[in-house]
Amino acid sequence: METEFFHPPISNDDIILRLAVAAAAGLVLGIDRELRGIAAGIRTHALVAVSAAVIMISSLMLFADVRDMPGVQSPDPLRAIQGIAQAIGFVAAGAIFFARGRVHNLTSAANVWLAASAGIAAGAGQLSLALITIAFGIVIVSVVRVIEVYLPGSDKTSPSEVTDDRPPDTDGKDPPRSGRREPGRTDLGHR
């Protein structure tokens, strides 16, 4: 007896719901980074989450299309997750840098990973998992940040200061919060 693990082809309404949950996950998870002036903000997180969901939905749909084709041996939609993980790992690693004796953007890179994970869950139709992921993400990036300041031995500054994810600007001005460079700036505006 063969067990059926996957749903029949995914309806357009279900696709829209899954992509909406993924977009919401990315938007919500990106708010903290956006408010702190980090380049990987709302749009980046939303695009990562929706992209992961699209790849997952496409993988499940392709699986449904090819699983019964003659000559096709064991199609595996889980390979899509592996591919997403590798791609997001590359993107996240590229966001991390070392300057002035400190590592920067580590939290942003982890947050992008979380957005991709929520997108995978939403794309796979695991909407409760995606929503719970969003809730944990909000608590971790927002509430825990406030608690970190008060931990003994913590070198974190007050929650209102932004020092852990971007280095001080050399000309004394903060980079623009929109992620765009000001006219005439020669630095890359790392954040």
What is this entry, summarized?
With 191 residues, the protein is mainly alpha-helical. It is built from five helices and two strands, in the order H-H-H-E-E-H-H.
Element layout with pairings:
Elements: H1 12-35, H2 42-66, H3 78-95, E1 97-99, E2 102-104, H4 106-123, H5 127-148
Antiparallel strand pairs: 1-2
Description:
- The protein is mostly helical.
- It has helices at 12-35, 42-66, 78-95, 106-123, 127-148, and strands spanning 97-99, 102-104.
- A two-stranded antiparallel sheet has the order 1-2.
- Helix 1 (12-35) runs parallel beside helix 5 (127-148), helix 2 (42-66) packs parallel to helix 4 (106-123) and helix 3 (78-95) packs antiparallel against helix 4.
- The protein is elongated and about 60 Å long.
- The model is unreliable at 1-7, 162-168, 170-174 and 180-191 (pLDDT under 50).
Features:
191 residues, disordered C terminus, elongated, disordered N terminus, two-stranded antiparallel sheet, mainly alpha
